[in-house]
Amino acid sequence: MASVDRYFASSRNALHRQWSSPKIATRLIIGNAIFWCVTYSQVIIFYNISTGTCWYQSGAYGMFFSIFIAIEIGILPILLLFIFGLLTANNVHKTRQRIEPIGAAHGGQHIQGSTTSKKDTQLHKMLANQILVFIILNMPNPCYLVYRAFTVNTSKSVLRSTSEDFAGNMTYALMDLEFSLTFINFLISSKMFRKEFLQLIRIKILRQHPTLVATVRRDNNKNCQIK
User: Fold this and answer.
1) Which CATH class is domain 2-99+114-191?
2) Helix, coil or strand: residue 217
3) For residues 140 and 147, what is the distance between their CA atoms, to the nearest angstrom?
4) Looking at the DSSP assignment, which residues form a beta bridge with residue 110?
5) Mean pLDDT in consecutive groups of 10 residues from the start of the chain, 227 residues
6) What residue range is the signal peptide (predicted)?
7) Where are the domains of the chain?
């Protein structure tokens, strides 16, 4: 949803930008939670407990569920992130390349200007890096699940079964690693994030108060006052 929000927030269309709001985000989060709770209610019927392990039934449902998980966990999120990432990059590119009229004060000429703030640029960079990390670390799991779905009825040796289980566990470990790298990714990607994080440490942990900087105000009589 973050990539979708960045797409709407970076759009030049005012109606599209209205979709990037906390109110709509809250509704989508609630609706998303309800949708997936209903979708996964199937496990109540088609899952069995055997030797202390909860696992889906073999056969046709096993193949269906493996493909479903591969699409839901890996293929669909990666596809959506890739599509909206490209759309966001396209919006940012159009915004930077937009030609704005200056008017008579500049001889009626046009100059090339950028209306994208540094904050938005860094947010887009953070999102792009997050998408890249997500794709790299999440791609092995759907590949493994698709392979497992098509070989579920294949006779396998103990060594092969053990190797496949190990490979499957490693793909899930990579998915968990992706979530744990979010903070490090943001810390490396964004100067703004690093600055605010260090400021948070100084204020909340080290109890250091922000330094007040003296500002100079010049009145109409050209007298200077220090505030």
Assistant:
1) mainly alpha
2) strand
3) 11
4) 101
5) 76 79 86 90 81 73 80 81 80 64 46 55 76 84 81 84 89 85 83 84 78 49 48
6) none
7) 2-99+114-191
